[in-house]
Amino acid sequence: MTQQVPSTEPELTGVRNFRDVGGLPTVDGRRVRQGVLFRSGHLAHATEEDAAFLASLGLHTVFDFRNAADKKLEGPDVELPGVRNVSLPLTDPADGAEFWKMVRDGDLEQLRRLLSGGRAANRMIASYRTIIRQRTAEHSRVLHALAEDSVPALMHCAAGKDRAGLSIAVTLLALGVEREAIVADYLESNAKHRRYKVYRNGSSPDTYSPEVMELLSPLFDARVEYLTAAIETVEETWGGVDAYLEQGLGVTEQVRERLRGRLLD
Q1: Which of 49, 74, 97, 137 is deepest in the core (most CB within 10 A)?
Q2: Owning domain of residue 254
Q3: Share of the chain above pLDDT 90, in %
């Protein structure tokens, strides 16, 4: 069983799913350094106390993987003095706009047609595969930035689960973190206090009914099969993690060594 460093995460009021990725073990016996790589949901609703805590981390860069539609819905991140904010949308705002409008506004019958019978989970799996195949430039930019000067860094999307989860996973793969530990960190997004709050429009009894929440759950869960699909896409497309990093992302062994120097004990 992989040994994890006990969590010392703070209780943030307006930021969901925040945690330090430090402590995760690598296959060669090292660990991710504490205080250099963080992940979370968006920072748009951070309170003054939240912002003060985030400012105390000494962050160099915040990577924001939300698209324009996310920012319109949630708002821009709060400004953290002296911190560089890098916007790298990992999904097209037009992609799925109608789908997410249905999630927020659709009635029970519409949601059944859209999400039942494994459709919701299949959509998530397809999304993870697409991000790995198509967003190589963005992931390359993140890894090169981390290798050069961008730590301590915080990666976030809207919920801190999918787009940030994939970017953290790619970073951990580049560092040689144990696969089991990568999956365990990803699944921590399921903790009740970390989960993204589901917002639906309407006042009918069906708006948040048990059946509706069950239909929606695959969209808001972190599931092993989602991350597994992403890693399988790496292996199917490039033949393995090393080739993905070098050929897909342009991350050479020299860049990986700089990453290890900055992010590992």
Answers
A1: 74
A2: 19-263
A3: 75
CA–CA separation, 89 and 68 (whole Å): 8
Please report whether residue 162 resides in a domain. yes
Helix axis angle, 136-148 relative to 253-263, nearest 10°? 60
Which parts of 160-209 fold into alpha helices (H)? Answer: 163-175, 179-187
106 belongs to a structural domain = yes
Question: Is 111 a domain residue?
Answer: yes
Provide the sign of the torsion angle of the four alpha carbons 203, 208, 209, 214, taken in this order.
positive
Model confidence pLDDT, tens digit, residues 88-99: 999 876 666 677
DSSP state of 240: S
CA distance 127 to 110: 21
What are the pLDDT digits (tens) for 137-155? 999 999 999 999 999 999 9
How large is the average pLDDT for residues 41-61?
A: 96
Percent residues over pLDDT 70 in the chain: 92
Q: Would you state the structure tokens that stand for residue 23, as one six-digit string?
A: 């402590």
Cα 100 to chain centroid distance, Å, stands at 18
